[in-house]
Amino acid sequence: MRDEGSFSNTDRDSPDGYRSLAAEVLESLASRRLRSEVRVRQSLLTRMIASVKSPIGEATETLCLEFRRARVPMTDMADIYIPEVARHLGRAWEQDRVSFAEVTVGLSRLHTLLHEVQADWVADSADRSRMSATLLIVPPQEQHTLGAMILASQLRRKGVSVCIRIAPGMNDLSSLVADGRFDAAMVTLGSKDRLETCAKLVKTLKTMTKGLLNVAVGGAVVDENRDVLLDAGVDVVTNDVATVVQQFKL
Fold it and tell me: Which of 29, 36, 166, 236 could cross-link to 138 by cystine, CB 3.0-4.6 Å?
């Protein structure tokens, strides 16, 4: 699984760059319901923030050991603490308390941490004939992918196989959906500027599959653009993983 999202240094002052980064760090596709049910331990959160902002970095194993000693599950780290740290970085950057470079390094470390803690969540290596399969798409020009990776980890823990594609071309999409192996597709939408691109992508998926593929869209700006997305053919508009799993019977 490869994260192809990136920013150039010039994106710091551009409206598109700002909105895309803000959407990434202030929002994620982690379930809002789940976050509200788990009390975040401030000491661990503070420790985690310091770790990802440290100039020299820190071994992932050290941070994971502290969570285990505190009897906090790795699933909570992935679903709650990592998004919370991302939002902290976003607020700090928005208030000019951290540099763009610090945010970029911090997000990269969160990606690495997420990759490490989800190493044992092996839905994609199980018997695919007995599980659901989902295509997770990050549309073209969406700059960061942490929210999508969190969503993928949640789905895999539920036994759903996930195929992630970042900015796929039409030929790639056509090949992926041609054999009908996917039970659903999910598309991330982190910026209102990508709304038209997202709507066209959904329409393309529906056309390619003759309307048979279930499609969900989630992200930072879905609530205020629900009608447009539904008009484009989206079946479910939500940031709640449980809702998608239930609606699509994954």
Answer: 166
Rounded to whole angstroms, the Cα distance separating 17 from 144 reads: 10
Q: How many residues does the chain have?
A: 250
Considering the domain architecture, whether residues 52 and 147 belong to the same structural domain is answered as no
44, 81 contact by CB (below 8 A) = yes
- Domain region containing 128: 123-248
Query: Are 167 and 62 in the same domain?
Result: no
Average pLDDT over residues 168-196: 87
- Residue 170 and residue 230 in one domain: yes
User: Per residue in 85-100, pLDDT tens?
Assistant: 888 888 888 888 888 8
Residue 74: pLDDT over 60? yes
Give the strand order in the sheet containing 184-188.
161-166, 133-138, 184-188, 214-218, 236-237
145 and 94 share one domain: no
Q: What percent of the chain has pLDDT over 90?
A: 17
Q: What is the pLDDT of residues 9-40, one digit of tens each?
A: 334 444 344 444 444 444 444 444 444 456 78
Residues 108 and 128 in one domain: no
Q: Are 217 and 232 in contact (CB under 8 A)?
A: no
In Å, what is the CA distance from 102 to each residue of 15, 92, 146, 195, 223?
19, 10, 16, 29, 30
Structural domain includes residue 178? yes
Q: Hey, which residues does 138 pair with through a beta bridge?
A: 166
CA-closest candidate to residue 146, choices 176, 112, 188, 111: 111
CA distances 49 to 2, 43, 173, 209, Å, are: 24, 10, 37, 44
Q: Write out the DSSP string of 16-80.
A: HHHHHHHHHHH--SS-HHHHHHS---HHHHHHHHHHHH-TT---HHHHHHHHHHTT--HHHIIII
